[in-house]
Write a structure and sequence with these properties.
Elements: E1 2-5, H1 7-12, H2 19-26, E2 30-34, H3 37-43, H4 45-52, H5 56-68, E3 70-73, H6 82-88, H7 95-104, E4 108-109, E5 123-124, H8 126-134
Parallel strand pairs: 1-2, 1-4, 2-3, 4-5
Helix pairs in contact: 2-8, 6-7
Length: 138
């Protein structure tokens, strides 16, 4: 299964003690994400450092480990779906995630409830994935 990570899930992976990090390391999935979330993480790096409790060096090591397991997709590869995605989601910041989901026929991993406003793309939150994992469904 391919699984698209949204910003907040990607950010939470920087904390190796988070439930998201546990799932990321445990479930069998091919993780993908829009390439721009790497720059988003850089913008929020100080907050992620604080929340993770990692030193700068530990954070950089963690980031490299996490990024190794994610296929980052450039918007050129899913841009044809922007218009359709814009019609599906109220938050313009999430158009890329919906577009990528439509182009790859993949679900999104997000804890943002507004993703579930639309019915075309399957969306799992961390609780959903944890339940599926514990029931050996993924």
């Amino acid at each position: 299964m391919k699984l698209i990570l949204d910003n907040n899930i990607f950010f939470s992976l920087m904390n190796p003690k988070s439930t998201s990090a546990y799932l990321f390391a445990s479930i069998r999935a091919n993780f993908i994400a829009p390439k721009f979330i790497k720059s988003e993480l850089e913008e929020h790096k100080s907050e992620c450092l604080t929340k993770s409790g990692l030193s700068e060096q530990q954070f950089e090591i963690r980031l490299a480990e996490v990024e190794e397991s994610i296929d980052f997709i450039a918007s050129l590869e899913y841009g044809l779906f922007f218009e359709k995605a814009a019609d599906l989601i109220s938050d313009p910041d999430d158009i890329d995630f919906i577009s990528l989901a439509l182009s790859t026929n993949s679900p999104i991993w997000s804890n943002d409830p507004h993703f579930k406003e639309q019915l075309l793309v399957k969306v799992y939150n961390t609780k959903d994935l944890l339940k599926m994992f514990l029931n050996n469904k993924i």
